[in-house]
TrEMBL record:
Database matches in SMART domains: AAA
Sample GO molecular function, one term: ATP binding
Domain of life: Bacteria
Protein name: ABC transporter ATP-binding protein
Predominant localisation class: membrane
Membrane topology: Peripheral membrane protein
InterPro entries: AAA+_ATPase, ABC_transporter-like_ATP-bd, ABC_transporter-like_CS, ABC_transporter_ATP-binding, P-loop_NTPase
Species per Swiss-Prot/TrEMBL record: Peptidiphaga gingivicola
PROSITE patterns for this protein: ABC_TRANSPORTER_1 (PS00211), ABC_TRANSPORTER_2 (PS50893)
Length: 291
């Protein structure tokens, strides 16, 4: 049986009087796409820094592919995409990718990497002239050149518009299908919900939830029943009767007994439609972290 891509056991990191990471343990398998969520100060960035060999743990153990992180990084099996830095701004996109490719002993073909990251359309543009989202795509290309098995992303789609964000995640899932493991920290809760099969939520240095994203979202038992009405006035009257949240011509009520909520909605006058949804990842995040 092969070793997991990432293994963390009882990880602790202390800065002075502050215990930033408190007994974190988890294992990530090849090909997983895992979102790391948590409010500022939750410990997720510190944990990823230790994984990348940028910081040493106070206690506990971290292994990449069954070995010390620095060994895997030196072998080119790990790449990271950070929010800033790492770019030579006076080069064109194509020249930078070609130049960095020459620094690796067995890189992927640079033209293939340009194609994977949708950079051909801006190949002749100087990096300093690229938008923030375009520079993130350049960082992604540089990270792919050594053909890593693990890619760690820190807020990877900051500065990207909706279309660029979707294209970015399409390319990331293509990498996961090639067997690469993707671990990303994000503040976009909707992004984690859409693109990560697994979500790890940290708060105050500990993991407070870890599992399939849809199970974390649905584990709270509550569902939201939304009733639609023909007019704003009818919706207001319904809210006065049943409570809940009013939005234009609809009223939404959340609770554990979805059948009772449905019956109450059906008894309201002028109702023209009902829908039922699970709690969102954002609601789960707020309940778990108190943020």
């Amino acid at each position: 049986m092969s070793a997991p891509t990432l293994s963390i056991e009882n990880l602790v990191k202390v800065f002075g009087d502050v215990e930033a990471v408190r007994g974190v343990s988890l294992s990530i398998s090849p090909g997983e796409v895992v979102a790391f969520l948590g409010p500022n100060g939750a410990g997720k960035t510190t944990t990823l820094d230790i994984v990348l060999g940028l910081s040493k743990p106070t206690s506990g153990a971290v292994a990449l592919f069954g070995a010390a992180p620095r060994r895997a990084i030196k072998a080119g099996r790990v790449s990271a995409v950070l929010q800033t830095g790492g770019l030579l701004l006076d080069h064109t996109v194509e020249n930078l990718v070609r130049m960095v490719a020459d620094t690796f002993p067995n890189p992927l073909p640079w033209r293939e990497v340009m194609d994977r990251t949708n950079l051909n359309e801006i190949a002749k543009r100087r990096v300093r002239k690229c938008s923030g989202g375009e520079q993130q795509r350049v960082r992604m290309a540089l990270a792919l050149l050594p053909d890593p098995s693990l890619i760690v992303l820190d807020e990877p789609t900051t500065g990207m518009d909706v279309t660029a964000r979707r294209r970015f995640w399409d390319s990331m899932h293509a990498e996961a299908e090639r067997g690469k493991t993707i671990v990303f920290a994000t503040h976009y809760l909707a992004e984690a919900e859409m693109y990560a099969e697994r979500t790890v939520i940290m708060n105050r240095g500990k993991i407070v939830a870890d599992g399939p994203t849809n199970e974390i979202r649905g584990s709270f038992g509550a569902q939201t029943v939304t009733g639609r009405f023909p007019t704003k006035e009818a919706a207001k009257a319904a809210q006065a009767s049943i409570g809940g949240r009013l939005e234009e011509t609809s009223v939404s009520v959340t609770g554990p007994d979805v059948l009772a909520l449905n019956r109450a909605m059906l008894d309201l006058p002028e109702i023209i439609g009902i829908s039922v949804t699970d709690v969102s990842l954002e609601e789960a995040f707020e309940e778990l972290t108190g943020e």
